[in-house]
Design a protein that fits this description.
The complex is a heterodimer of chains A (about 400) and B (about 350). With about 400 residues, chain A is an alpha+beta fold. Chain A contains 14 helices and 14 strands. Chain A has a five-stranded mixed sheet with strand order 6-7-8-13-14. In chain A, helix 2 crosses helix 3 and helix 4 packs antiparallel against helix 5. The radius of gyration of chain A is 26 Å and the shape is globular. Chain B is built from ten helices and 13 strands. Classes of the chains: A alpha+beta (about 400), B alpha+beta (about 350). Strand 4 of chain A pairs antiparallel with strand 4 of chain B.
């Protein structure tokens, strides 16, 4: 029970102004032996400077291959409360929006069936219910689905797509991030719940180049809002920024990466043909400047953390695509990418590493994308070109 | 649980629309602008009115009690509406301006800081660490707690040159994607896996294990007639790839595991393109419960950045302007052979001009 926790090292983490996870876990340790033993095992980790969790374990709910991460204590006799400590990933709503009633409903389920601990949220975007026993998995799943919730992804499957708040609370949104994320999640339930890829495939959806979901760094497929036409200018509001004493020259004009802004007194002029849509000026003057009307998204492929072959950012494959329901063009593209990757990718090879191995040229050819200058920072610097066309003497060989 | 309940699968998440505040629903896709009212408080305005957002910190590792405390505030002051951000903050949403102070007061009573907007240090993206992970080289929640105790004033104010994003990952798997943060704290192993030959032949697929190594350091071998693997320790860079596919090759080493610090990454396209983090400090010891060496180093970086960068210059942009040589000079961090890249594309990081500052 909580009163015999004996966790002096962890209690050092109850001091200071930042919310303490130790204090918080202690608050449920009275009613949850799992939470109490989690603290006791963690105290031992703090003493010994090492973790005490076993490696994985195949557990799940019937008919699903993903959504549950098996976890067992390496010291089950010492800490029986965490002998099983599996994670249940619950697919979050688009934009991480909730009502109190809906969240309380999940908390009721988790107090009954699990440790009473969560992550709000996991790195991929799921609501993470942290710590339960194998025999509680199916009842937890049943209770969740009765209230309209389902599991997210894990393992070599399409991971739970996630998105920014988008048009629900942001004037920068260049398309409906929430609707698209919901659409992709529903369209690909099978790919989400039953791992059958070479490796994980993450999709993140951001409404503008500010990229609040870090899609360009963290998702195999990044869908990031962009516009093609001119930044919308409200000169009256711009004049108010000048009147307010804001250093418009220093903060806005001089920081434009393509020097395409000029200011004359209280009037701003933008050379939109040279604007790279970086968002800096709009971020600084949201009342005076706004994204244009011809809106859609760019698609980048291949971002990942270092494992296996080094960290990658996403590479731009499609500089602009319109995203309106029913998103058929995007679905087609996703399915062509999966098909080629599925057929030719190696085990544990993410799409970014796969593209580097098979080359961007071949990847484009196979999935039906045209090579365009927007895909690269510059053309190749080396002369080792695999020419495929050549002339031959008349009457022999290729015609090209 | 009753067994006569129909078992549903593949229903997907609930539709988000039912969780949107009426003002957000009415202004959906029609927002005009936003204002920053105070640190941690934003307003967004559209033709159908204004929604106020109060952003609060959370430990991410949160109990059902914590979440019920949050939903209570949402019920009392926000008609039940709340959301979470991609950086683990909680956001309270109300159309009543007079409720902003009430929400802040309720959070203050729970000792939850409000902030994380604009030129602040927002909440920390982080991983599980010793709390829940088998490959952790350090604890994540503990590191976040001690670092943010030190930097809490930067969360509740907007006094930095630009927004500053911190992340903690407890091993090179980087579930916290620290590779594009302004300041990243990364748990590291420093010794090769210890192979358990008694379990490996039963638990691990040899070809998969051999193929998992990015440096081809793992080879099949035979011990007492059983096929197992050996590691060329000179080639091992302690990445943990093999452990991910083979449980018999743990890397955990209490004497040598520790923490590295990385700086200068960014995600957004504002001004400059997205940037990876680069190595600042190759190793600091695991010194729980409060990791003083780590908090000192992070504080040092933030202080030097705050004192030297220009307005709205992100940490990585500032370093690019002043040079890495000057960054090491200003922070006092030692530049070592570990700062010289030796993995794929290392050559692209070598300096190939005479443009240095003297």
């Amino acid at each position: 029970m909580a009163d015999d926790l004996k966790i002096p090292l962890l209690e050092e983490l109850e001091k200071g102004p930042w919310p303490s996870f130790v204090t918080d876990i202690k608050s449920v340790a009275g009613k949850s032996e799992m939470a109490a033993d989690l603290l006791r095992q963690l105290e031992k980790s703090y003493e010994d400077k090492r973790g005490y969790w076993k490696h994985g374990g195949l557990v799940g709910v019937r008919g699903y291959g993903g959504g549950v991460i098996g976890r067992y204590s390496a010291l089950p006799e010492e800490f029986p409360g965490v002998s099983h400590f599996h994670t249940v990933r619950v697919n979050q709503p688009s934009g991480w929006v909730y009502t109190a009633d809906a969240l309380n409903g999940i908390m009721d389920i988790w107090d009954e069936h699990g440790s009473g601990l969560t992550n709000m949220h996991g790195s991929t975007g799921d609501m993470v219910l942290l710590g339960t026993r194998t025999e509680e998995l199916e009842p937890t799943f049943l209770a969740l689905t009765q209230k309209g919730w389902d599991l997210g992804g894990s393992g070599s499957d399409m991971r739970t797509p996630s998105c920014c708040i988008g048009p629900a609370r942001c004037e920068y949104a260049c398309f409906d991030t929430l609707a698209l994320t919901y659409n992709l999640t529903q369209e690909y339930q099978d790919e989400l719940h039953r791992p059958m890829f070479n490796y994980k495939f993450k999709i993140k959806v951001s409404g503008c180049p500010n990229d609040c979901t870090a899609a360009i760094a963290r998702s195999d497929m990044a869908i990031i809002g962009i516009w093609k036409d001119d930044i919308k200018v409200n000169q009256e509001e711009f004049a108010k920024y000048v009147d307010s004493g804001m250093d418009v020259q220093g903060i806005v004009v001089d920081m434009c990466p393509t020097s395409c802004i000029s200011v004359d007194g209280k009037t701003i002029d933008i050379d939109d043909s040279n604007c790279v849509k970086c968002m800096h000026c709009i971020n600084k003057m949201p009342k005076a400047l706004a994204v244009g009307d011809e809106k859609g998204a760019a698609i980048a492929l291949g971002a990942k953390a270092p494992i296996v072959d080094g960290a990658l950012f996403g590479s731009i494959m499609v500089p602009f695509i319109e995203l309106e329901e029913p998103y058929e063009e995007l679905h087609d593209l996703i399915e062509r990418i999966w098909e080629f990757w599925d057929e030719h990718g190696k085990a544990r090879e993410r799409i970014g590493e796969f593209i580097e191995r098979v080359t961007l040229a071949r990847f484009c050819e196979e999935v039906g994308l045209d090579p365009i200058p927007q895909m690269v920072t510059h053309p190749r610097e080396n002369p080792y070109i695999f020419y495929e066309e050549y002339f031959a003497e008349e009457g022999e060989g290729s015609e090209e | 649980m009753a067994t006569d309940v129909e078992r549903k699968t593949d229903i997907g998440p609930p539709h988000y629309e039912q969780f949107l505040h009426p003002v957000m629903k009415a202004n959906y896709g029609k927002w005009l602008y936003h204002d920053s009212i105070a640190p941690g408080v934003l307003s967004h305005t559209g033709p159908e009115g204004t929604i106020y957002t109060v952003r609060a910190a959370s430990p991410r590792l949160a109990s059902t009690n914590f979440i019920r405390n949050m939903t209570k505030i949402a019920t009392d002051f926000c008609d039940g509406y709340l959301r979470f951000t991609s950086r683990n903050n909680v956001e309270f949403l109300t159309d009543k301006e007079e409720n902003v102070d009430k929400i802040k007061a309720a959070l203050a009573e729970l000792k939850i800081p409000v902030g994380g907007t604009n030129n602040a240090i927002s909440n920390v993206v982080h991983t599980q660490g010793w709390v829940h992970c088998h490959s952790a080289a350090t604890d994540a929640s503990g590191l976040v707690k001690v670092v943010m105790d030190e930097l809490a004033d930067y969360f509740t104010s907007e006094n930095l040159p630009a927004k500053t994003r911190l992340a903690v990952a407890c091993c090179l798997n980087m579930c916290g994607a620290v590779h594009a943060s302004d300041i990243a704290i990364l748990g590291v192993h420093r010794t090769p896996p210890v192979i358990d030959h008694s379990t490996l032949p039963n638990l691990c697929e040899i070809p998969t294990t051999v193929a998992s190594c990015p440096n081809n350091a793992i080879k099949p071998t035979s011990i007492e007639g059983k096929t197992t693997v050996k590691v060329d320790e000179d080639k091992c860079m302690y990445c943990g790839n093999c452990f991910t596919v083979c449980p018999s090759m743990p890397l955990s080493d209490p004497l040598n595991d520790g923490v590295s610090i990385w700086v200068g990454g960014k995600i957004s396209n504002a001004r400059t393109e997205p940037m990876f983090t680069k190595l600042a400090v190759p190793y600091l010891p695991n010194n729980p419960p409060r990791w003083p060496e780590v908090t000192d180093a992070v504080k040092k970086i933030v202080d030097v950045y705050a004192a030297n960068a220009r307005p709205f210059e992100r940490l990585g942009e500032w370093i690019d302007r002043i040079s890495w040589a000057r960054f090491f000079e200003l922070t006092g961090f030692e530049f070592t052979k570990y700062h010289l890249d030796d993995f794929r594309w290392a050559g692209t990081t070598y300096k190939r001009s005479l443009q240095n500052r003297y």
